[in-house]
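HOLO CASE FILE
Compound: 2-(butylsulfanyl)adenosine
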Amino acid sequence: MRGGAEKEAVKQYIADLRKKIHYHNYRYYVLNEPEISDAEYDGLFKELEELERRYPELVTRDSPTQRVGAKPLEEFGTYEHRIPLLSLNSVSDEREVRDFDERVRRFIGGIEEEIEYVVEPKIDGLAMELVYENGVLSVGSTRGDGKTGEEITQNLRTIKTIPLRIFSDVDAGAGAPLPLLEVRGEVFIPVSKFKELNAELGAKGEKMFANPRNAAAGSVRQLDPRVTASRPLDFFAYGVGRAEGKGFSTQWEALDYLRRIGFKVSPLIRRFGNIKDVIGYHEEVKKKRDELDYEIDGIVVKVNSIEQQDRLGAISRSPRWAIAYKFPAREAFTSVKNIVVQVGRTGALTPVAVLEPVQIGGVTVSRATLHNEDELRKKDVRIGDTVVVERAGDVIPEVVSVIKSKRTGAEKEFRMPDRCPVCGAEVLKEGPIVRCIGVSCIAQLKGRIKHFASLRAMNVEGLGEKVVEQLVDRKMVSDAADLFFLTKRELLKLERMGGKSAQNILNSLEKSRHTTFSRLIHALGIRHVGEHTASLLADNFRDVEALRNASYEDLVSIPEIGPEVAKSILLFFEQGSTKELLEKLERAEVWYERKEAGLVEEEKEKKVLEGKTFVFTGQISIPREEAKSMVERLGGKVASSVSEKTDYVVAGEEAGSKLEKADKLGVKIIDEGEFREMVTLPS
Ligand code: IVH
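Model generated. Tokens follow.
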């Protein structure tokens, strides 16, 4: 008897633990606002794993430990959608959107009836359907032809922003889980993660993806779910299929419900009462497009009322109640005038296509990367070729493919040089990458200094490419630390450098001397140590001295740091030039916040808004209370009215008189996107 009661208690304990992990998973992945440190999270997770090992009979499908684990498949099965997944008619100009609005109004009949539109970003990924039975994910499938898709449940389970179990807590206001709920949405790969993934694939000599969408498609349809699990896939929910026991009267309500039960729903979604505002919002989102960390190719305009949607119905496969209002294409045809070689900060030689300048999405593109020799061969790009060029987000433009039918025979093949085109040193081939091994290569030095000063490293504003090049060419700096010893007199010698710009550079150098340990490590430019690894190292070592003295064993004992990265760190600190650089940085009084190893990330974050006062006006998509607590968490304050003491006014929609006052007082006005950036929330 006692055994039974004990078992019940363990079962309850495990259930509570899972609930906790689900919740912290949601805070971390969906909201991007963890409440506990990674170490605490890992502790909970390990405890659950241990208990499940001891009581295998208590393992459930929706346990957070069960995201990956299924065996590779031979092929995918098919899945018939209960309600077909429709596609959208798309339009690309204002007149066509007005026509759509007129059609809707005509169909609904009567001018008296109000029509409200919900506008959502059109995520450039792949449509998926997730089926939840009694709150637990049971089937995940692709759209397929709309009626039948592929059953890829085990792959979709590996995506952290797809809940294995949806929240049903009464405090989440969502009520009990429905017997059946179908959630529709888009799987995608964030642009930043896409760049990392491609760099990784490129370094291994594997085929890279042309754009984030192809990367998502290639990742989600892997027969081995472990491969899918290693890819940075993400998911935005945007619709509901069947929902047994629940009626929604509007799309807005459905989206709100999805958000409350734990899905990631785009913060860019808005409601408008007329088509003019919809068109205005299209413009606004188009401008923000490059700042987002995911690709969007337009907006989707949906009639909000479900009852009106039902009346409008669909023609063939597209609903009459929705339309895709696209942005200009990101692809263009042009010709390759030449192929040149660029040398980066790690010495890697990158072939670059010099193009006949072409407009892509409002930007003139005249160069595009060909990544490395293997990629160039695979695509078979030749000088004189007509090519398709793509520019996705802030990704470097790249040559996607060659239009071989346009070849005349006059095209010239390109060969990689066998010496560094900048310093003449020998090159070494490491897999697909050709690297200059010159120790005093000017191109590498320029690259290192640019990286050191860049936004995500030391963030020295005003120190652009042109300035760095001149500083190196005129031998005014021989490493990054020399930047801190520059004088105004010296800076003024540079071309097109006025007193004001020079002073700005000095000021921002001064400001950047006070940084975080993790930024400093990132700025050093150690091979294989990007932003993420830098922050791991900062968490595990007290200071530069401790990091410099770390042994191979110390380094590889940190989860996520493998042999290659460890070796690269050791190699970096063995070099004489590193010693010199670190000594100079010390002399320059570059100062970073030291911290006890093991402290949580938040500790380090605390000060970034210290002493800053914010005022909010108008509507933003983050609840006020939440926005306030974010500012306070980072050391700032929120005031209710604008004064000389205000540092930032965050202006949302329909901002009122506070905005005018801020303008008058010269207070900096920022929008929601900029605010999110400051508090490092994703847009
Ligand atoms: S709604 C009837 N909403 O666009 C509604 N689709 O051609 C049909 N997409 O296959 C879809 N973002 O892959 C909808 N916010 C959004 C979307 C979206 C991206 C994609 C989806 C779909 C295609 C429609």
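CASE NOTES: The chain has six domains: 2-66, 89-326, 331-433, 442-512, 517-602, 607-678. Confidence is low (pLDDT under 50) at residues 596-604.
CLOSED: yes
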